[in-house]
């Protein structure tokens, strides 16, 4: 697959990337919003520097490292992907708090309909804004959506220098263990 041109990336602004969903998933991963590379390719976490796919493998969620174009395989592992805010932007700071709050409301509706065991929001700041929980920290949250538990994960963007690939994989691994223990 050829890398999108700068013009193609700019044309992807505000486009939507379809969710990867199924009923009763073990974990529904939730990004902040699609980047332009994701919107141009139609694949979540598609930017080459994004660590989502390597971390998913390193933490044991998948038996091998998947390419973003293989996102359709996730439901067979009990996994899915959505976003807090659906529209694509070059940077998450282009989004308003209002968009995050509305995205949180829509996300609750989606989770109530699909009933995954865990909702894993990849970006604690996005979680805080979308759900009005200013004190949220990385890890499992007290809040639930019906029987769905919530886990705030570090943002896998390559720009998130506070988390190395190894420490991020460790946190994702904690979620994997919680999701595989069979409890809600």
From TrEMBL:
Its EC number is 3.2.2.28. It is an enzyme of class 3 (hydrolase). One of its GO terms (biological process) is base-excision repair, AP site formation. It comes from the Bacteria. Gene3D superfamilies: Uracil-DNA glycosylase-like domain. One of its GO terms (molecular function) is DNA binding. Keywords: Activator, Chromatin regulator, DNA damage, DNA repair, Glycosidase, Hydrolase, Isopeptide bond, Transcription, Transcription regulation, Ubl conjugation. The keyword Heme does not apply. Residues 18-179 form the Uracil-DNA glycosylase-like domain. The keyword DNA damage applies. This is G/U mismatch-specific DNA glycosylase. The lineage of its organism: Bacteria, Bacillati, Actinomycetota, Actinomycetes, Kitasatosporales.
